[in-house]
Design goal:
Structural class: mainly alpha
Helix content: over 70%
Number of helices: 19
Strand content: under 5%
Shape: globular
Length: about 350
Amino acid sequence: MKPRAIVATGTDRSADRATDSIGADGSSDEDGDNTSSRARGNSGRKRAVAGKTSPAANGITWRLRLRRDRTLVLMTLPAIALLLIFNYIPLLGNIVAFQDYDVYDLGITGSPFVGFDNFTRIFEDYRFWDVLLNTLVIFLTQLILFFPIPIAIALLLNTIMSARVRAWVQAVIYLPHFFSWVLVVTVFQQMFGGAGLIAQWLREHGHEGFDLMTNASFFKFLVTAQAIWKDAGWGVIVFLAALAAVNTDLYEAAAVDGAGRWRRMWHVTLPALRPVIALLLVLRVGSALNLDFEQILLQRDQVGPGAAEILDTYIWWTGIKTGDFGYAAAAGIFKGLFSVAMVLGANKVAHMLGEQGVYSKK
């Protein structure tokens, strides 16, 4: 047994010497420098890799995204082409607003430049400002009388429990949206004209008839009524879609707290509609000068230009019909800049009221 003990003791001593030569970090003194140099090399390579842009860290590259979504891109190309052809490329034709444009002989390339002379003619034309004021009056009338009606109809339809009745009423009020303005004006002529059904019924019962279609002072209310009958159903769809996203638990919680129907509408329904109302109101204000050209043109001769002339019809009669395209183009640019200013102003008011509007506040 002694030789075995001696051997074991020698082994322990050699292990002790090996342990003494190993550092505290588990590496020998001989290998310490190599290990530290390898660690420095690895850390350097890590820093070099971290300095490069990693697709995994920042998302996939645009090439991979294009390859992944190539089907959707190909589907949108026709729409983009139509948008460029009919909306953006024609903007280059606004150069005629700064020319004495001759459409028949000289064209765009040969017509002489006159600077801002066409804009000066617009601002010096008193008739232009009268037409602009009349356009704004008709717009304000439609904004006050027409804009709240789709909201009210949507709130009423939202209270109907029967889905079948709600769908039937929605289809009936939405149907006139597909009618042309020629048909709409004809229907109103047959109802409220001098030889219309209402006037004939009044005469048959000993009363004096009337003709609202030729009443100049009533014209702004007439076109507003026509717009309500034709397009109110379209606005109802938008507001009903917003109401469908309201959580029904809010109505149940309000009912449990004792809120009646009006309280639930005021504190639950209307706050849910506020973002949509603000967005549509901003867009409507931005199109203040963009009234229905066909609707006004069809009834312009019945009431006279003094009551029915709007900016679009005025540009048509004084610019395009007489061949003064430079004047018409200058008026169109003024209309576009005015609309942009109205959108920015209305959107600023929406931000002040705490709504997002067309774009969010940064």
